[in-house]
Design a protein that fits this description.
Chain lengths: 287, 56
């Protein structure tokens, strides 16, 4: 497989699958994020995991099952686990200190066919670490671009109504950049809402971006209502729907500063909503 | 001429603590998203640890 270039949230990643034992293949919707060969911020080489060597550094964070991160002489090491092989990881990825260079070793046999070299959770854990080093923040949210090109970000945990919101917008949306994972970055003084390949139940995903016009913290209710939030409440509630690398104090500090910028620069409100079109009409009128 | 009147003191407001729920398994990407390709199982999630939570 030739080198593949992905651009996710404006970050270009070169994925080099040059080991013939790894039949790399990206599937939908990741393929929508493939771009022509271009200078990459992140360079990743994919190899077969020939043997498992125990981590050389201390454990920094345990996710609770599917991945762990260790300190490593090269920088960091992320191990991904599956019940298929419970004794050792199916994926061992070693990165430099800023996660811009990485070697990912994969046990292809576990995949039983083609291999997604950036299969979840490695893809999002990598992006989380890249964003938290001065680039932006990934939020659990649904990103809607209206016909004026404005980005409306609906944030909430699982079950809050993100995919439902995406469906309710229907033709009133020019684009849904994701119904589950949205990245916010500041570039040239503007806050941008970026789509990601990671979607929710509505399977909506797009590499598009739009200037962020407003953030709505989802809360299902009997009547539609937009409630203003204090700066502190807004930051706290956004933090509960963010994906920062919790092992890294500097990364947490940057994430908090990024959330502060969002709350300071665009309206961040609680959106108490009914599960019907009237809720969308309220947002369109308020925007 | 400088105005030497002391600035009015702000009224003291007792700090309050507000708790917001954080779902650890979601926040740390420690669960299996059923709607995306997750690990070596083509998105079916059954083979990846802690995969009982839907992803959206």
């Amino acid at each position: 497989m030739p080198d593949t270039f992905l651009r996710i949230a404006g970050i270009t990643l070169a994925v080099r699958c040059r080991d013939e034992r790894i039949p790399c293949q990206f599937s939908e919707p990741v393929t929508r994020f493939i771009v022509p060969s271009s200078p990459a911020e992140v360079d990743l080489e994919i190899f077969h995991l020939d043997r498992f060597d125990p981590p050389a550094g201390p454990l920094l964070f345990e996710s609770g099952g599917v991945w762990r991160i260790y300190q490593d002489p090269a920088g960091y090491r992320i191990d991904c686990f599956s019940e298929v092989m419970s004794d050792h990881p199916y994926n061992v990825a070693v990165f430099n200190d800023d996660f811009t260079r990485g070697t990912i070793r994969i046990d292809a046999a576990v995949f039983g066919g083609t291999v997604d070299p950036l299969a979840y959770p490695l893809d999002e854990v990598l992006l989380s670490n890249l964003l938290a080093r001065g680039r932006g923040v990934e939020l659990h949210g649904c990103g809607v671009v209206d016909h004026h090109g404005r980005g409306h970000l609906f944030v909430g945990q699982s079950g809050a109504g993100k995919s439902t919101t995406a469906r309710l917008w229907g033709d009133d949306a020019r684009d849904i950049v994701s119904d589950d994972r949205v990245v916010v970055r500041e570039e040239e003084g503007t806050l941008w809402m970026y789509g990601t390949p990671w979607h929710g139940e509505a399977s909506l995903s797009s590499p598009a971006r739009a200037p962020l016009a407003g953030v709505y913290l989802l809360a299902q209710a009997a009547e539609n209502e937009l409630r203003a939030l204090s700066r502190a409440d807004g930051i706290a509630r956004l933090f509960a729907c963010a994906f920062p690398p919790f092992h890294d104090a500097g990364a947490i500090a940057f994430t908090m500063s990024m959330l502060d910028r969002i709350v300071t620069r665009v309206p961040v409100r609680e959106f108490r909503f009914t599960l019907d079109r009237s809720a969308i009409d309220m947002v369109r009128e308020a925007a | 001429m400088e105005n030497n009147k002391p600035a009015a003191k702000k009224t003291y407001q007792k700090p309050t603590v507000t708790r917001f729920p954080l779902r650890p398994e979601e926040a740390v990407l420690g669960f299996c998203k059923s709607s995306v390709a997750a690990g070596p199982n083509g998105g079916q999630c059954r083979n990846v640890g802690n995969c009982s939570t839907p992803g959206s």
